[in-house]
Fold this protein.
Amino acid sequence: MRNIFGPIPKSLSLAPTLAGRLQQIREYRDISREDLSQAVRFTTQRIDDLESGLETWLSATDRQVLAKALGVEPKILQEVEHKPNLPQNAGRRKEVIEDMVTAIFNGANELECPDCGNIAQCSLRTGFDLNDKEIFFPKAFCLKCPFVLIWEG
Ligand SMILES: [Zn+2]
């Protein structure tokens, strides 16, 4: 595998996400996923996860090796990383969602997004159940990321 690259030309407008950018630079450098995975000692599955957006940020070490293998400055990758600032384990997430639901019932209309920490817009909607009884259900969506609150009662 080649390991000396010229700079990425300014005319190439870089993708706004880590997934898009990794794939774009890899293709621009004409490196296969297999070659890249060998060069950085990640599994091809991990490269797939990164390029499909399942992984959205890199540890400093991983970023360094990926950037080197792709012939770019680490900051080119870092600037589009998206690091959730809350723990992602399912139990904790459920608690966070339940707290959001409670807050919305109490009238909150802006809360911290559990995925990215930006503002999630919240509202309490009214509807009717099958017996025509009025019901309330909370809605929330993030202004910055794809987070949508799904509340099943
Ligand atoms: Zn968000």
